[in-house]
Amino acid sequence: MATNKALFDRRVDAISRGVGFLTDFFAERAEGAEIWDVEGRRFIDFAAGIGVCNTGHRHPKVVAAVEKQVASFFHTCHQVTPYENYVELAEKLNAAVPGTSKKKTAFVTTGAEAVENAIKIARAHTGRTGVIACGGAFHGRTFMGMSLTGKVVPYKAEFGTMMNEVYHFPFPNEVHGVTVDDAFAGLEKLFKSDIAPNRVAAIIFEPTQGEGGFYVAPKEFVERIRALCDEHGIVMIADEVQSGFGRTGKMFAMEHYGVEPDLITSAKGLGGGLPISAVIGKAEIMDAPNPGGLGGTYAGNAIAVAAANAVCEIMAEDGFHERTTALGVKLKDMLNGLKADVPQIADVRGQGLMVAVEFMENGKPRADMVPAVISSAKENGLILISCGVYGNCIRFLPPLTIEDSVFDEALEIISAAIKNAASTAQAAE
């Protein structure tokens, strides 16, 4: 039997240093919200493949859908020989996204591809080239994705010149003193010094920033973006790659705002563990590119589409989103309850089970707390991952289908890990 150490040595020897890793063990099997490594150790998974396995590992309905599709065919390329389940999934997504406008959908493979195609669609629709994104944003690792991303290390560092006509303005952030008015003052500064509104094709933002720190966009911020886009004929893109598919207690996070975006990007939780992504939006905008302008060889692969159709059915079950919200409240209550013993907890935030805790002291980020918490949790059988521009946040992304007993077990581990990190930090001082 291979050991984690032996596999890690092989990994270092065989795989590019640029492909990072967050744990030092190798998965052998997974079920629900649990993973077992090659040495037989069990871990509760509070990362879910970075918000991908929202319906858990190997959900029976997803497995059944995949097995059924595999028995028929693997791949024909929808652009060459189309298949019905692609159409079925598009119909489901068109009906699921918020807003009353007629919708259409296009499938690709990754979140970054969805973002790239949303920008292509916006440029084709408007005949403009400028794009505005937010500081702290994460939109992917392709060149357009990197350019839109509002964080240099590790995503942009050493990769040279970014795409042109991409601009950034501040994202509201109460913890760090950035108000909605501050954000729009930054936007107005762009319009005065860098690009006129009538040259902007799209404004793209995350309803809840992912890699940036799980900061939730204020309702006023979203409403003002919608008004500004309407005023200047700009396409409003909501990047829901991480916040979509039940993660925030709604099918899409934009449902919390009562605002209809022009385009939504979706990936991660959409495929239940298989690679698929989508751009969904207003039909007249989605139809702007010429035939052949969208797509890809693997775009909307039949097996991934089958999995995504099953995910939609799971999330349509009675009480699914209500339970997600309840679990998120329970998690936040536990974290807030630690503040008396852990003064470094500056903020606990999030919608549904897209929750983060941020560590600060005397107004300064305490990034040192994060690896200590993650390491302690790992030693006690729980997988956690970090986020935040300052690296001082831990994000919690358990499968939404996690069993109550496993969830409660995880909360105990998290509580102990945070208290232990705080004690260690205090002793070091």
What distinguishing features does this structure have?
single chain; 429 residues; alpha/beta; seven-stranded mixed β-sheet; five-stranded antiparallel β-sheet; 13 helices; 16 strands; 38% helix
What does this structure look like?
The structure is a single chain. Helices cover 38% and strands 17% of the residues. It is built from 13 helices and 16 strands. The strands form three sheets. A seven-stranded mixed beta sheet has the order 4-10-9-8-7-5-6, with helices on both faces. Strands 11, 12, 13, 15 and 16 form a five-stranded antiparallel beta sheet that branches.
Summarize the structure.
This protein is an alpha/beta fold. It is built from 13 helices and 16 strands.
What is the topology?
Layout: H1 4-14, E1 27-31, E2 34-37, E3 42-45, H2 48-51, H3 60-70, H4 84-96, E4 103-108, H5 111-126, E5 130-134, H6 143-148, E6 166-169, H7 180-193, E7 200-205, H8 219-232, E8 235-239, E9 263-266, E10 277-282, H9 283-286, H10 302-315, H11 320-337, E11 345-351, E12 354-361, E13 364-365, H12 369-379, E14 382-383, E15 385-387, E16 393-396, H13 404-428
Mean pLDDT, rounded to whole units?
A: 96
Strand content: 15-25%
Write down how many β-strands occur, each being a DSSP E stretch of 2 or more residues: 16
Cα gyration radius (Å): 21 Å
Contiguous uncertain segments of 5+ residues: none
Span between termini: 44 Å
Main β-sheet: number of strands, strand sense, barrel status?
7 strands, mixed
The strand order across the widest sheet is 4-10-9-8-7-5-6
Overall, the morphology is globular
User: Helical percent range?
Assistant: 25-40%
